[in-house]
Amino acid sequence: MHLNIKELPNGIRIVHQEVTYTRLVHCGFILNIGSRDEDKEQEGLAHFWEHMAFKGTHKRKTFHIINRLESLGGELNAYTTKEKVCFYASVLKDHYPKAAELLYDITFNSTFPEKQIEKERQVILEEMAMYRDSPDDSIQDDLDALVFEHHALGRNILGTEETVGRFQQQDFFDFISTRLDTSQLIFSVVGNISFEKALKIIEGPLREIPSKRTLYVRSGFHDYQPKFKTVQRDVTQSLCAMGRPAYSLHDPNRFKLYLLNNILGGPSMNSHLNLSLRENYGYVYSIESSYQPFSDTGFFGIYFGTEEKTLKKSQAIVQREMEKLRSKKLGSNQLHSAKEQAIGQMAMAEENYAALMLVYGKSLIDHNKIDSLDSIFEQIRTTTAEELLEIAQDIFHPDQLSYLIYTPN
């Protein structure tokens, strides 16, 4: 499948891939702005902006935005991460013009009506309360705060009750005007539509957006110090999160760490941690490890819940499994199997065209190119057991892990 990329004079780029054997088109705007780009007093503003994009533009009220695609069986959505804000839609191919025009409208023409700000403020406060009631979710963000202490990467994407409680209309306009960079903005399209048809609808409006470069520069993360923290919570089992900074999006070892993480505690049932803690001992219902690269650093973490009486034993088993990968090379059969599993998972992920559309946009922002899946497969296939051993000795070093424990009241 051929990939098309076009850069407009203002720096906005359009990426497109035609997929003829689907009835759908997936499209969206990906902006290189996230929660880490907020000042301390702006904590939660990027996420609030994501909500407010649906609450009114110069020509539409909330109902008209929500109903525009939903009434056609389409989906309109958005999300905020630490480094990106995305507005996207999935529709039958005949409705692409409506989807593209609506996405353009909410991305660039939001008016942030004051009455809607007050309503949505309450919605977000409820979202925060719901999140606090879910310790499995909150422990992951609390670990971020521990690992990236005193840095924007450690702040909660939702913000705080104090910051969310005081945002006003001008705050949104000011944030966007100081953070929006048209060279860091992608419109991505994947689905049953030609490049010419995709451009015909969106290129004209996008060309009219003035070229804009921001003077803002992200603050890098330095001076990590491992920490240990125990918190009493209203939980029925002990929850354990451990983690540390890891490789960035630009580190050549990132795919190797992805492979190593998959072996240790990836989503498959045959991960080392799942086999040990769940299958062999029955100490956990689920356990997972994760690796998330950012533009200048990364994050590696492990999460599980267990009865209070088996917490220490479970932690020891996790350490033992990491130490195995630090002290002994994988055998050739083990390594081959791990590579095939990771490659298979990536290949299946590519079948999700909505996700692929977003991946293309993020890749173009982060790397100024889109690597083919074959080139990524090649990097995984050429990874050696010696390289994985070296990465395990680095990332899995027990003295470099921070720990956060939730214990029952």
TrEMBL record:
<protein>
    <submittedName>
        <fullName>M16 family metallopeptidase</fullName>
    </submittedName>
</protein>
<feature type="domain" description="Peptidase M16 C-terminal">
    <location>
        <begin position="167"/>
        <end position="341"/>
    </location>
</feature>
<comment type="similarity">
    <text>Belongs to the peptidase M16 family.</text>
</comment>
<dbReference type="InterPro" id="IPR050361">
    <property type="entry name" value="MPP/UQCRC_Complex"/>
</dbReference>
<dbReference type="Pfam" id="PF00675">
    <property type="entry name" value="Peptidase_M16"/>
</dbReference>
<dbReference type="InterPro" id="IPR011249">
    <property type="entry name" value="Metalloenz_LuxS/M16"/>
</dbReference>
<dbReference type="InterPro" id="IPR011765">
    <property type="entry name" value="Pept_M16_N"/>
</dbReference>
<feature type="domain" description="Peptidase M16 N-terminal">
    <location>
        <begin position="14"/>
        <end position="160"/>
    </location>
</feature>
<dbReference type="InterPro" id="IPR007863">
    <property type="entry name" value="Peptidase_M16_C"/>
</dbReference>
<dbReference type="Pfam" id="PF05193">
    <property type="entry name" value="Peptidase_M16_C"/>
</dbReference>
